[in-house]
Amino acid sequence: MRDLDKLKMMFDSFHEAVYIVDADRKILYFNPVASEISGFKAEDLVNSHCFDNTLNHVDDTGKNLCKDGCPLLVSIRENRVSDHFVYLHHKYGHRVRVHVRSIPYVEDDKVVGAIEVFTDETQKTSMIDELIIHKHMAMLDPLTGLFNRRFLTERFPVMLSENAKDGMLGILFMDIDNFKEINDTFGHLAGDEVLKSVASTIQYNLKTHDYVVRYGGEEIIAFLKNVNEEDLLFIAEKLRILVAKSSTRTARHELSVTISVGATMALPNESIDEGIHRADIAMYEAKVRGKNNTVVQ
Asked: Has 218 been annotated as catalytic?
């Protein structure tokens, strides 16, 4: 499940309980609200299977749904949303009535797992709608797996305000040099592979709490949490060098590209757009200096 880390980042701040399983029903993620409702910590459940029966879902008749009638299994096998009212077995022994909605998770037209959302009906918590889940899944770029521009405008400002204590924020605006020539010479499929390769190099060499966004076309923005100006330049140069020292293997060619990087620190009380604009200007200055450069603004 290639987008698991992004889903975790979004669902950590959900007001509803969420957990994610793979196609074998192994639990990959269990969010804080799920822990509050069930009494179980994430480490109690992650890497176990839902049919291990820790949550021990039963229906009104006492039927054990984890063994027979699991909503997650229905979603995985039949690729459809499944709704149930069930009773989970709290860690401290009592039963909690919850509404469960299981949503299939699809990658490349194949069901690779499911997302289960449950709400505590004993507290009359509002039921999450399937569209809300799909809305958040729609904040991931399908080609690169990075966050997309919709995430940047709709969700990122909220997440920043919720974590305002995390310290200074660095912004890197990165653009693949001569990307149009790659598309024109080798075709758009090769260009897509190059873009995916560059995105992966950037994403896998940042910290898990940093945010990487495909801003548009071949433009990628990284938001680095809790860094100073020295850190900012070091990380920008590291990413620039790693991309330059890498290559993308397609069926017929091995393609190498470079990136131009504009870097800036977000200023107090400014909007995200203002910081991005300043980093964008710095990136264009890097292009003027001959590309494959980093400019700090």
From this structure: yes
